[in-house]
Amino acid sequence: MTRFTVNNNPVEYRMDPQTPLLWALRDASNLTGAKYGCGNGQCGACTVDIDGQAVMACQTAIGAIEGSFVTTIEGLSRERDHPVQLAFIAGNVPQCGFCIPGMIMAAAVLLKRNRNPSEDDIRAGITNLCRCGVYPRIIDAVLDAARVQRGDGEIAVGAPPGTSPADAARRVPALVPPAD
């Protein structure tokens, strides 16, 4: 049995300790945000936060992280209002969306460690692959999220379908209605 914490909940997996974390999360915990991409740790689709480090879950055996704290995209923010998530939405970053959870997790870890990253810091810290090629928008979104986390700005996004911009701004303080 392997024990650690996932999204602030203690878990115990009765799986082979060599089982990749990705499969424990997806199959045993029904946390499907981390995606299987390449299976060899090169694409980053399976990125999660383990004890403050961006880690490829497909390459991490659950036995190796006994006692650790794991955060997945599902645990990043209950309301989906983490500055990185909001910046990705506002910057119209997602295309197909497959790589986005891993990108967001890598960006969130980067911003925990570096509150004021340069474009070069972002390129070095987020090595995830995106087949849609939205890299310039990712860099802009991470810079925007960093500004919000430092308290130097806000993120303007449109309201979710069926919600007025004013209601969205009241519900999530980091949101401001876009200027007309």
UniProtKB/TrEMBL annotation:
All residue ranges annotated as the 2Fe-2S ferredoxin-type domain in the record: 1-76
Entry-linked Pfam families: Fer2 (PF00111), Fer2_2 (PF01799)
Gene3D superfamilies hit by this protein: 3.10.20.30, [2Fe-2S]-binding domain (1.10.150.120)
The organism's place on the tree of life at top rank: Bacteria
Sequence segments annotated as region (Disordered): 156-180
UniProtKB keywords: 2Fe-2S, Iron, Iron-sulfur, Metal-binding, Oxidoreductase
KW Metal-binding (keyword) present: yes
Keyword Oxidoreductase part of the UniProt annotation: yes
Composition bias, Low complexity: 165-174
PROSITE patterns linked to this entry: 2FE2S_FER_1 (PS00197), 2FE2S_FER_2 (PS51085)
The protein's name in its UniProt record: (2Fe-2S)-binding protein
Organism: Sphingomonas hylomeconis
Origin organism lineage: Bacteria, Pseudomonadati, Pseudomonadota, Alphaproteobacteria, Sphingomonadales
